[in-house]
Specification:
about 575 residues, alpha+beta, eight-stranded antiparallel β-sheet, 10 helices
Length: about 575
């Protein structure tokens, strides 16, 4: 295993996006974070990884408020180190937060950073934080990437304690599958630390800094797959034990005792899942360590992902129910309110409260008289009305029914039932210009229950895989042939659990290609069952109706799929 040069120390940095305040956690009393980088005790130090030894270079002298390409406004510097700086910025064109890595154009690693960023941008895998731009502009080179304000670093998650078995299983499963996909495209990370792994609010893990973080620091490796595999093993080890699997402390985690070597996670902390403990050891096997039960070590992310898939699925823990506190009677209910406390030496006898007889108080008597008066008044009024009715019958016994009012103009006629309107055509809603199953759109109006417009299967996210072309969802646009009065809808969904709404175009609408072309909201955006039925209090005049689907239900195997079986428009 090749040793690293000590000239390019950078562990205090945190992948370019972590706040600077988090860096202090990585320094320890028996060795700073720099010591980790030079002693070869981190996963990135294995298999011949090398760090370039250029002299320390000055970072670009920029400040908050500076704009790049008249678009990216720098807000806060989160890292400044070894000739480059990382910023939180704002994309003023798209009005969103982004991250930016900056370095001088004459920096020795400028060309490799641009190449790494452009290669990572081509991957397009939503499990990675996406590279949005890579530019050389004048005397600067900068890389723009996504900023995820609602995501939490693994460093912060582990600060509160070790993960349960289900969360740790999800971590190693998602990260190993993502890195296996990256290596199939020839991309390595080489800086896969707790600061490079984020968990979103939906529980999905995303990896930032693919290829770019290593290029910024000049990190290389003779065995990139082995280095990334061991890094994933270290993340799993930390998730199970809240300890870093090396002798030095790092990322706010305590290291292992010196001189004892690599200890299995289930020997470090009681209650660790045995299968996950063995999996971490198989990924961390190095420098003479052996995996438990003589299992073969995992040397690539793909082997690790297959080992995770071969394990029995670990289910989430059952939700805990906290029993409500036992009801406590107040001192007033116990009969001691207003009594002086017992003197010293006098035993206090429990007082048993005897409830008063019902309605014996002054308030009870008033209530009783009021109820009696109301009953007498009701009886008198009823008797008077009965007598008046009997007199009317006796006086009018010889009359016919000609004085009775008859309904005029069919006032009591029930409203006519709603009828289905003829549907001229059905097309797929394609706000990005690209469709998914355009040829199947007419299946949603053919009147057949065994045909439908069905989406492909999407991985990872219910919003069509979080893919950029599907950012505004999809759906079916129904053409009535002409402007008509629409009074209701009957829609059969292909599967329940889809998030959908119904919109309508203006009377003169045409060339419909975006959500803004459907300004009339016929239903709310909500998660639907197997049917979407709606009747309107007032008819809506339109020719085009959009059944808009924004999220798909899970298919039970980690993917998402939906669709529309049949559409009926009523008028």
């Amino acid at each position: 295993m090749a040793e690293r040069s000590t000239a390019a120390v950078d562990v205090a940095d945190n992948s370019g996006d972590e706040p600077l305040a988090a860096k202090a956690d990585e320094a320890t009393t028996d060795g700073t974070a720099e010591a980790q980088e030079t002693t070869g005790t981190k996963p990135q130090d294995t298999d011949g990884e090398r760090i370039s030894s250029e002299a320390t270079l000055p970072t670009p002298d920029l400040h908050s408020g500076h704009k790049l390409a008249r678009r990216y406004r720098l807000e806060e510097c989160v890292t400044r180190l070894d000739g480059f700086s990382s910023w939180r910025a704002v994309d003023e064109k798209l009005r969103r937060a982004v991250g930016v890595h900056l370095l001088p154009a004459d920096h020795p690693r400028a060309r490799s950073v641009l190449a790494a960023a452009r290669s990572a941008a081509l991957l397009g895998d939503p499990r990675f934080v996406q590279v949005l731009d890579a530019v050389e502009e004048g005397d600067l080179v900068y890389v723009v990437h996504e900023w995820l304000p609602d995501a939490t670093e693994l460093t912060s998650l582990l600060a509160s304690g070790p993960m349960d078995a289900h969360d740790a299983y999800q971590l190693v499963s998602q990260v190993s599958q993502a890195m296996a996909a990256a290596h199939r495209e020839g991309l390595a990370h080489l800086r896969l630390t707790p600061g490079a792994v984020l968990r979103s609010s939906t529980g999905q893990y995303r990896i930032r800094g693919l290829a770019v973080n290593a290029a910024l620091r000049g990190i290389a490796s003779d065995g990139p797959q082995r280095a990334d595999t061991e890094a994933i093993g270290a993340l799993l080890y930390a998730a199970l034990t809240q300890r870093w699997p090396y002798e030095t402390d790092a990322y706010g985690l305590s290291g292992l005792p010196k001189g004892v070597g690599l200890i299995a996670p289930d020997q470090v902390r009681a209650g660790v899942h045995r299968g996950l403990s063995e999996l971490a050891m198989r990924a961390l096997v190095n420098d003479g360590a052996t995996a438990s039960r003589q299992e073969q070590p995992c040397t690539t992310p793909d082997e690790l992902a297959k080992a995770v898939a071969a394990m029995p699925r670990i289910r989430p823990p059952e939700p805990t129910f906290t029993a409500p506190p036992e009801y406590q009677r107040t001192t007033y209910q116990q009969g001691t309110y207003g009594r002086p406390p017992a003197g010293p030496g006098v035993a206090t006898q429990p007082v048993i409260a005897v409830p008063p007889a019902p309605l014996q108080s002054r308030t009870g008597k008033v209530l009783k008289w009021a109820v009696s008066a109301l009953l007498i008044a009701a009886l008198g009024l009823g008797s008077w009305q009965l007598a008046e009715t009997l007199l009317d019958r006796s006086n009018g016994s010889g009359t016919d029914d000609s004085t009775q009012t008859t309904p005029k103009n069919n006032d009591n006629k029930p409203p006519a039932p709603l009828k289905p309107l003829r549907l001229s055509d059905a097309t797929e809603f394609m706000p990005s210009g690209s469709g998914i199953k355009q040829q199947d759109a007419p299946n949603a109006i053919d009147g057949k229950s065994d045909t439908a417009w069905i989406t492909p299967r999407y991985e990872g996210y219910p919003n069509f895989g979080n893919l950029a072309p599907r950012r505004d969802g999809s759906g079916i646009v129904v053409d009535l042939g002409s402007v008509q009065d629409v009074t209701g809808l009957k829609i059969v969904m292909y599967r329940s659990g889809q998030k959908a709404e119904v919109l309508a175009a203006d009377e003169n609408g045409s060339a419909l290609s975006s959500l803004s072309d459907f300004p009339k909201r016929l239903t709310k955006l909500a998660t639907r069952g197997s049917n979407l039925d709606e009747e309107f209090t007032e008819p809506v005049r339109t020719r085009y109706i959009l059944i808009h689907v924004t999220e798909l239900p899970s298919d039970g195997t980690g993917g998402y799929r939906g669709g529309i079986s049949e559409i009926s428009v009523l008028g």
